[in-house]
């Protein structure tokens, strides 16, 4: 059975490859013998992560500057990756903005009433339109070769709405309370819709398309926030950054050869409570 997880010689392009989880996705590919290419708008950050992965696992790993919102740029990057590493077998759409909860000039900008159109358009452009562009460019090449895997990274907030009580501040009126911005949920729900559509669209061309919906990850959150969120998770904690690697390896390998259009929820049980 372990042979089904083998990715030796497979080339994976990971968008948002220099962020919080992008390098962990790269580790999952490398640990199974695959070639991970980390794409990020911050090339230095992606290159540092790629160097760490190559050193840790002894597998060729690369980094490229990649702006998922620029289709023309993406085509050039994909051409370069396929020239240098070989045809892309796996696409992991991980790039997204994570709009922060906070206030500016005394006004709670994350609330729907105050949320700027420019912020809306930028978040959608990176997280949803960017995923579509990557699928359009890379998935189409996979379909032409009659093989490939697309893994779209959604979220537990692509399954349920955010519980805004997690962000509440004592002593503030309702219109001053911080909230998780609307774009995060819209993007992550949209990713699931895109996944299901493309899974059926490319099924007859042997391109599998699935989504991973991870829960929150430990990342220096305040004790107050952790107490609140942990009480809403049956397992009682957020995930460690490396706890999604096995799920990524499963969905990117032949271990999931009969799985397409699926959403693997890995959230400690949060969305079932």
List the helices and strands and how they pair.
Elements: E1 11-15, H1 22-31, E2 35-40, H2 43-57, E3 61-65, H3 71-84, E4 90-93, H4 117-145, E5 148-153, H5 182-201, E6 207-214, H6 223-230, H7 245-252, E7 263-266
Parallel strand pairs: 1-2, 1-4, 2-3, 4-5, 5-6, 6-7
Helix pairs in contact: 1-2, 1-7, 3-4, 4-5
Note down, in words, how this protein is organized.
38% of the residues lie in helices and 14% in strands. By secondary structure, the chain is an alpha/beta fold. The chain has a seven-stranded parallel beta sheet with strand order 3-2-1-4-5-6-7, with helices on both faces. Helix 1 (22-31) crosses helix 7 (245-252) and helix 4 runs parallel beside helix 5. The mean pLDDT is 96.
Gist?
The protein is of the alpha/beta class and 273 residues long.
Q: What is the H-and-E element order?
A: EHEHEHEHEHEHHE
Number of strands: 7
Beta percentage is 5-15%
Helix content: 25-40%
* Oligomeric state of the chains in view: single chain
Count of domain modules = 1
């Amino acid at each position: 059975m372990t042979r089904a997880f083998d990715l030796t010689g497979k080339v994976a392009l990971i968008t948002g490859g220099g962020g919080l989880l992008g390098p962990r996705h790269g580790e999952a590919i490398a640990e199974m013998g695959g070639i991970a290419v980390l794409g990020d708008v911050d090339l230095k950050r992606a290159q540092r992560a790629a160097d760490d992965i190559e050193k840790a696992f002894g597998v060729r790993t690369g980094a490229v500057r990649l702006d998922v919102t620029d289709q023309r740029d993406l085509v050039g990057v994909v051409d370069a990756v396929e020239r240098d590493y070989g045809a892309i077998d796996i696409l992991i759409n991980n790039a997204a903005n994570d709009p922060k909860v906070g206030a500016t000039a005394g006004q709670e900008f994350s609330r729907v009433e105050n949320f700027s159109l420019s912020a809306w358009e930028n978040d959608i452009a990176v997280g949803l339109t960017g995923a579509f562009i990557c699928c359009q460019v890379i998935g189409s090449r996979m379909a032409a070769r009659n093989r490939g895997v697309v893994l779209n990274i959604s979220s537990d907030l692509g399954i349920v709405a955010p519980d805004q009580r997690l962000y509440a501040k004592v002593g503030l009126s309702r219109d001053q309370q911080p909230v998780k911005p609307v774009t995060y949920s819209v993007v992550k729900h949209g990713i699931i819709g895109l996944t299901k559509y493309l899974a059926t669209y490319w099924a007859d061309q042997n391109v599998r398309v699935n989504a991973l919906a991870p829960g929150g990850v430990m990342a220096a959150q305040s004790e107050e926030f952790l107490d609140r969120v942990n009480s809403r998770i049956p397992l009682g904690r957020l995930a460690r950054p490396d706890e999604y690697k096995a799920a990524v390896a499963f969905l990117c390998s032949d271990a999931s050869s009969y799985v397409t259009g699926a959403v693997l929820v890995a959230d400690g049980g949060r969305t079932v409570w």
